[in-house]
Amino acid sequence: MRLSSLSVNSNKSYFSTSPQCIPAGGFVEVGAFSKINLFLEVVSRRPDGYHELVMVMQRLQLCDKLHFCKGGGEGSQVKLEITGCTNLSTGDNNLIVKAAKLIMKEYNITQPVQIKLDKQIPIGAGLGGGSSDCAATLIGLAKIFELDITITQLMEMGKLLGADVPFCIFANLQESSGTAIAKGIGEVLTPLEPHPGCCVVLACPGVHVSTKEIFNRITNLSNICQVDDFIAAYNTGDTLAITKKLYNRFTKITSGLHPQITELIADLQNEGAYGASMTGTGATVFAYFTNENEARVACDILQKQHETVKFFITKVI
Questions:
Q1: Structural domain spans, the chain
Q2: What is the pLDDT of residue 224?
Q3: Domain 199-315 part of CATH 3.40.50.300
Q4: Is residue 35 annotated as part of the catalytic site, yes or no?
Q5: How far is the C-alpha of 208 from the C-alpha of 258, rounded, in Å?
Q6: Annotated active-site residue in 35, 65, 143, 159
């Protein structure tokens, strides 16, 4: 897939046909998908202070919804309203507002815009919710203001707002497989074939994990990455083979601070999961199940053992 070949205003534009981006009656609605890291390795520390990463990122069905409408706002050029979550700011420090102001400044848009966010992805859980909302905002405003902008340009703009934002833009492409290798700080993407269908349980302990602190605890960087082993398993199209190669460099570090993470991984596997791992720097654990019924039974049992954990059942898409 040539990510640079798609233009918002071309006849083949993803924005005009994708179910992820629905125009209707003067407004646009965009789904902001969650993600998990099937593989995550920290290869080296860069001169600029960032870390060089190698990841395999996967889109999930669980998503936020963003609704965009021109005009009608009073005062601020960008008016944000949030439902489903009470502890998110609607001010300039929110990534949605930052994204909106960035693209509106770049394209000299002075007309006010109203944005409504229906928040379903748990915040601070390693599921990419903030980055995905940011990506959806760039996509939604590009559509509603009919901007002449390519996917590559959107990704470059997204990179300024967060390392996961380019993947989240990619995940919204109609023809996207929803799976990609991500290198650099996460912005260099290589699409993979679609993931075989399976049910995924997300277990969110609700603990706060400082990404900066976790990165600062990394030691013994060897510049060796075993991603080829994961890709070989992934290319078999066998879910069981994939789960045997799930890997996250941060699991040991984060679980050292929050032992419940390793408990959840073990408990999910004991309740029938193919395999389980942590996503991002934590603290959410994900696990693969054969079907939704098996996943629901496991969640019911584990909810009694982990009363403070929130369980979600979703799918890879």
A1: 3-191, 199-315
A2: 65
A3: no
A4: yes
A5: 10
A6: 35
Please say if the pLDDT value at position 73 is more than 60.
no
Distance CA 38, CA 17 (A): 29
Decide the pairing of beta strands 78-83 and 113-118: parallel
pLDDT band at 72 (very low <50, low <70, confident <90, very high): low
pLDDT at residue 65, as a whole number: 97
List the catalytic residue out of 133, 164, 245, 267: 164
Peptide bond preceding 283: is omega within 30 degrees of 0, i.e. cis?
yes
Length of the chain counted residue by residue? 317
- Written as six digits, the tokens of 96 are 């949605």
The pLDDT value recorded for residue 74 is 58
Q: Are 151 and 169 in contact (CB under 8 A)?
A: yes
- CATH 1.10.10.60 is the classification of domain 3-191: no
Cα end-to-end distance, the chain, whole Å? 17
Other beta carbons within 10 Å of 185: 17
Mean pLDDT of the chain: 89
Predicted pLDDT at 138: 97
pLDDT in tens, 257-291: 999 999 999 999 999 999 999 999 989 999 999 99
Q: What percent of the chain has pLDDT over 90?
A: 76
